[in-house]
Amino acid sequence: MIRCLAVDDEAYAVKIIADYINKVPFLELAGTTTSAIDALGMVQQGGVDLVFLDIQMPDLTGIQFLKLCGSKCKVILTTAYPEYALEGYEHDVVDYLLKPVPFDRFLKAAQKALNVLQPASNTAPTNPPPAPPLPETSPNYIFIKGESKNKYLKVGYDEILYIEGLKNYVSVFTPGQRIITYQTLRDLEEQLPRPPFYRVHKSYIVSVNKVRMIDGHTVYIGDTSIPIGETYRDEFYKVIRED
């Protein structure tokens, strides 16, 4: 068994990885934490073979963790930002998973870790355990933080029209309500699938499925007009043209 540690500053993201670990026969969940510093202590104490590690974390980033961790365990990076992939591989990571992570991609990364930690030259069972069945579909919803510490609201992807980020909170707009959550727009962006969700402005994420019209540098969803920021225009227009 490969003893695994799930590390992410978002509790919901940790839960997803922990659930995935529990589905794989040759993985064992050794622990979870939202603190990279606590994770480093766990690794240094021993008992951890593989760490599923977020890159963007306060106090200690994933890359800094890799430098401090050395060869004490293997690491699979998880993030929404592909630009860190090269630097991660320079530190000999097993794999690099982009959020939101589908289970089939997670399983492929786990198999890579198995090949690294328990190579074929080792004594292997004649009949290895079968891989767990893949889920029929990926999740079609997200849990959004509520106003209290342990409150989460389940919202279907098809319900979300657009998301607006303000100073200290984010507003998620659906046809029937406006949900206010005290987290950053970047945190939500990491959890939402692309497509249909795309950042079009430093303060807005839209669902392309809900776009009624694009006129110049403005997106219209219902009667709401949303500006397309200069930083995001090229990528967003490319998505629209490909659709």
How would you characterize this protein structure?
The chain has 243 residues and is of the alpha/beta class. The protein folds into 2 domains: 116 residues, Rossmann fold; 102 residues, OB fold (Dihydrolipoamide Acetyltransferase, E2P) (Beta Barrel), CATH 2.40.50. Helices cover 28% and strands 29% of the residues. A hairpin with a 2-residue loop joins strand 11 and strand 12. Helix 2 packs parallel to helix 3. The termini are far apart. This is DNA-binding LytR/AlgR family response regulator. InterPro entries: CheY-like_superfamily (IPR011006), LytR-like (IPR046947), LytTR_DNA-bd_dom (IPR007492), Sig_transdc_resp-reg_receiver (IPR001789). GO terms for molecular function: DNA binding. It holds the Pfam family LytTR.
